[in-house]
Amino acid sequence: MIVRPWTLSRLRPVSPTHGGRAVEPGTVLAARVDRWSRARPLLVDGLLAGVMWLVFGVSSLLGGLPGLVVGTLTVLPLALRRRWPAALLVWSAAIFVVQLVVLPIPLPANIGQAFVIYTVAAHVPSLLVRWSALGAGLAGSLVAGFRWSTEPDRTRNALVIAAFLALSAGLIWLIGNIVRGRETNLRALSEAYARLDENTRQRERFLAQQERVAAAREIHDIVAHSLTVVIVQADGAEYAAGHAQPWDRAQARTVLATIARTARTALTEVRGVIDVLRDPESADDPDGPPVGLTDLGQLVAAVRSAGLPVEVHVDPAAFDRTPAAVGFVVLRVVRESLTNVLKHAGAHAVARVAVERTPRAVEVSVEDDGVGHPVCGPAGTAGHGLDGMRERLRAVDGTLTAGPRPDGGFGVRATIPLAVRGGRR
After folding, report:
1. Is the CATH code 3.30.565.10 the one for domain 286-425?
2. Which of 66, 75, 273, 311 sits CB 3.0–4.6 Å from 352 for a disulfide?
3. pLDDT tens readout for residues 359-392
């Protein structure tokens, strides 16, 4: 029997619709134009300055040649308005002062001062510079009101003109600040999305690493158990072939059948793990097939066929309405523990398996009366069996206690809570 070892977490792609509604084609076009213009600020500002000169600069000829010169010097520098907004503010104020001295009338090119105020308010982060732009606009409005006022009611006309210009400058400055706040919010959102995207990629890498570790642990459990059974059977057969008189063909057939059955089972389970890696959708069932007494009995029978006596004491209710994840962990703990007994307990050892159910957990105990070797690999390094059991139990909030017994042998005790987080295995 194959039990899928884990459930893969999947990140679902975000729908391209906004709020369940399809994006309007006009909105997409506007977004493309906005991105294009932001990517080419000098080109856009140069085109704007050229068009404004053709419309407002040339029409400033109504002030004569001085009007054309002042209009040109006011409008054409707008091509650099987003590159050097503060310097443009100083330049525009100086040209406006020259205009007030040379010409007694307003010019169409004076609309350039409005663009300068807007640009400074929208694109300069310094609060002092932005307030300076507003102050220059209000001061220029007051002076221009008196400069451009006419008789008979000169003072009244000057105040009306100054109030109109000041109100216009204030509104333009306010709009620029609103746009700057919007841009600041968009940049903050863009940075937040970038961090979220990076966190998402890190989470995907972490999940992929978890999946690789889970697959490696599962394959280790399968191969270690199966090869241990095969080695024990092969060693026994080799000894019997060399020393038993006469050679028992029936016994040899049993040994070979056990080896073949164990190898086929291991191959099938490894293929199951690989299939899950290739097709994650096949592991999306959080519950999976139930694990019960039959599976435990088959496992114990396979170990007994390898020559290890195993005493089993199982609470009949141990697997009754038990989550599949809990039953799976119980099965894996018993299998890994018995594999360690086969590998390290020595000859003539007897293993005892006990599975009991409490109101809140299933408790598993696997002990042997062998020589009690530490669980080590070929080079004397610690093996991965106990670490794998601990990781598997940690995933379901379980605990593991393992070590030599006072009267000899080795013991493993695991506690698996019945309330598994999300039923994940």
Report:
1. yes
2. 311
3. 888 999 999 987 644 444 443 334 566 777 888 7
